[in-house]
Amino acid sequence: MPESTLRSVPLLDLKAQYAPIREEIRAAIDRVADSQYFILGPEVEALEREVAAYSQCRFGIGMSSGTDALTAAMMAIDVGPGDEVITTPYSFFATAGCIARLGAQAVFVDIDPLTFNLDPAGIEAAITGQTKAILPVHLYGQMADMDPIIAIAARHNLIVIEDAAQAIGAEYHGRRAGSIGHFGCFSFFPSKNLGGFGDGGMVTTNDPALAEKAKWLRNHGMNPKYYHKYIGGNFRLDALQAAVLRIKLKYLDSWTAGRQRNADRYRRLFAEAGLTQPATRNPQSVVPPFDAGFGRHVYNQFVIRTSRRDAVITQLKARQIGHEIYYPLPLHLQECFAGWGYRPGDFPHSEAAAAETLALPIYPELTEELQAAVVAAIAAA
Ligand SMILES: *Cc1c(COP(=O)(O)O)cnc(C)c1O
After folding, report:
1. 166 lines ligand 1 (CB under 6 A)
2. Which candidate, 85, 94, 93, 149, places its Cα nearest to that of 117?
3. Residue 318 lies in a domain
4. Among the atoms of ligand 1, which is closest to the Cα of residue 70?
5. What distances in angstroms separate CA 177 from CA 32, 182, 349, 363, one per listed residue?
């Protein structure tokens, strides 16, 4: 192909996001620098109120990362040795890593192959006398099927913790991610829809007692100063991150609208290129993300499914188009979890997803021209 038609498309373009808000962010950073108040404090408290309100929750507790948010939420319900937490094998490592770090066991349940989220149909059979919680993940920005999950949890007296790291602002029948379970856990890692200038996270809840416990655990279980009721950790959020995130939160809805517009545009471009068939359990060509019809999908990732992934990747690489496999090895097959005794074949839908999915650029600033270049590369494969 002639050099002039080569295009370089990044998977994510944070510089494009930063340019129009640069002055505003720098002023916020200056405000913190002038205050010399760096850890927790008024900026963090303001962000907690704002993210809680945005997520339709009563309480927000700032954390040092999404991983620490998950850890603190599980510590708040005393997850520990002998306990089991039911979750999906098809997620980022932290989802199961937090369970293991507390000495508990992750009990995996396979995903729905269309949505890639925990399939409620498999949950009840996985419940034992040791089960303490269910941990659904709202993968790629679409919420898990929460009504049946909540009903099962209520029947068995279990806690529900939502891993909403990829789903800030996503909705399930009008209810926002993080507001439905006992806890919601958010990440402000730079590649998330609301990303800081480093690590950050938040726990949300509507329960005042759980909110208070999570808040203590964030700071070594300490209250009052130097009196420790619980063994917590240092899961505190920095004021600099909070100040940056507060500016970015004002733009989140417009960025989300950009992601949704780009998702629609991919669907049209795929159809025009003759690449798509309706979503099917037996994908032949390119299967775009399945919309479960629950409501607002915030497209942290736009993940297609194709049985010809290697050929597609070859074309994308040749044209310098960003892409990523989320995630190439399901959690039940990770080396560090070998002690849990899972085997290949245990969760066929998760294993098939790991073999066939591919994330394409979806960031809000992406143009139609660049998207057309992505689709052309896939068509060439
Ligand atoms: C990013 C992510 C996390 C962890 O968040 P960090 O802020 O990186 O610690 C947890 N779960 C999921 C699904 C994620 O995507």
Report:
1. yes
2. 149
3. yes
4. 10
5. 29, 12, 24, 20
Distance 89 CA to ligand 1 centre (A): 14
56 and 202 part of one domain: yes
Question: Per-residue pLDDT averaged across 10-14, rounded?
Answer: 96
Is ligand 1 within 6 A of the CB of residue 276?
no
**The overall pTM is greater than 0.90:** yes
H or E segment to which residue 178 belongs: none
| Alpha carbon nearest to ligand 1 atom 10, residue | 94
Confidence band, pLDDT 50/70/90 cuts, at residue 282? very low
Domain closes at, from 179, 214, 249: 249
| Confidence band, pLDDT 50/70/90 cuts, at residue 7 | low
Please report the atom of ligand 1 found closest to the CA of residue 139: 13
Residue located nearest, by CA, to atom 14 of ligand 1: 165
> For residues 171 and 143, is the Cβ–Cβ distance under 8 A?
yes
Concatenated DSSP letters for 185-197? EEE--TTSSS--S
